[in-house]
Write a structure and sequence with these properties.
- The protein is α/β, with parallel strands linked by helices and 302 residues long.
- The protein is built from 13 helices and nine strands.
- It is 45% helix and 16% strand.
- β1 and β2 form a beta hairpin.
- The termini are far apart.
Length: 302
């Protein structure tokens, strides 16, 4: 990068303006696996295109477009946050995806079940069981960035859980099975939502919470990328995979025939599989592990 660039204020999804941070872009590009020369080339081009007040989502789109031309696998990792938003338009693909994250950690996970409460029956997004602990998981999917889960959401989830837990203890008392509650979102939690959930023992997970153990950390460190990350497939092709319950690139790596069964034939299938294999590779360059916590399991946040 050449001479020091002037400070430019940009607009976040929440509407707040903050100084443009080249270092944040550099770090995110580095984490995606982009090479140093590619990173600096993209930053130089970004400075030519950004302007005062530009939305941060537009900066992301520009950087992604440039990265896609130079390194498709890195582009797939870089667009991870958007790929999670693309698990829509309904919330069901997101629920399937979260269930897969738990299955990868050796949980038995089922979706859209009905559990008896003390007062009424409840539809449960995910029931994940491991080590005699049953985790009742509510998924809150949002379409737009900048949307927060405020305190009303954990209040609602916790009240439903207490009704289920009351009945659960009566039914499983002799088996000494534990029952715990989770709220997982693809965006973020407000401060009072975190405060309430922590006080009541409700486990939370969001894009970046708990710190070091949020969705982005688990996905990156375990290589559990959604099929919506793939830059070689069209939106329609990704939708067909999601409709068939195929949400992980790792699933495609183990079953390449799923692409053909979803109407994606060679040579596009070959391009997609090359990208899948790169995204799912187990080894990460040592430089990418600097200041990153050890590979984590899905564990309670409180």
């Amino acid at each position: 990068m050449g001479a020091k660039q002037p400070s430019i204020l940009v607009t976040k999804a929440s509407g707040v303006t903050v100084p443009f941070s080249a270092e944040k872009i550099r770090q995110s590009l580095r984490k995606s696996g982009a090479k140093p020369d590619v990173i600096e080339t993209i930053l130089d081009e970004l400075y030519k295109q950004i302007y005062p007040g530009i939305p941060t989502r537009m900066i992301y789109k520009i950087a992604y477009s440039l990265l896609k031309k130079k390194a498709k696998p890195a582009a797939g990792r870089y667009q991870l946050k958007q790929a999670i938003f693309d698990l829509g338009p309904s919330g069901f693909p997101f629920e399937q995806y979260v269930a897969e994250l738990f299955r990868q950690e050796k949980f038995t996970a089922t979706t859209n079940g009905i559990l008896e409460g003390h007062c009424v029956k409840h539809e449960v997004d995910i029931l994940a069981v491991k080590n005699n602990i049953s985790n009742i998981i509510e998924c809150k999917y949002h379409h737009q960035q900048g949307t927060f889960c405020d305190v009303k959401i954990p209040l609602y989830v916790e009240s439903r859980f207490r009704d289920i837990e009351w009945q659960w203890k009566n039914t499983h008392q002799k088996a000494q099975q534990q029952c715990e509650a989770w709220l997982i979102t693809n965006t973020r939690f407000s401060t009072d939502a975190v405060q309430y959930a922590t006080c009541m023992g409700l486990h939370l997970m969001s894009w970046d919470y708990p710190i070091g153990k949020g969705l982005k950390d688990i996905i990156d460190q375990a290589g559990l990328y959604p099929v919506t990350c793939l830059t070689t497939l069209s939106r329609g092709e990704k939708s067909r995979l999601l409709e068939r319950g195929i949400v992980l690139c790792k699933t495609l790596a183990a079953h390449p025939s799923y692409l053909e069964e979803s109407g994606i034939a060679a040579p596009r299938k070959n391009l997609a599989m090359a990208e899948v294999e790169n995204l799912c590779q187990e080894s990460i360059e040592p430089a990418l592990l600097e200041n990153v916590p050890e590979v984590i399991s899905i564990k309670p946040s409180v």
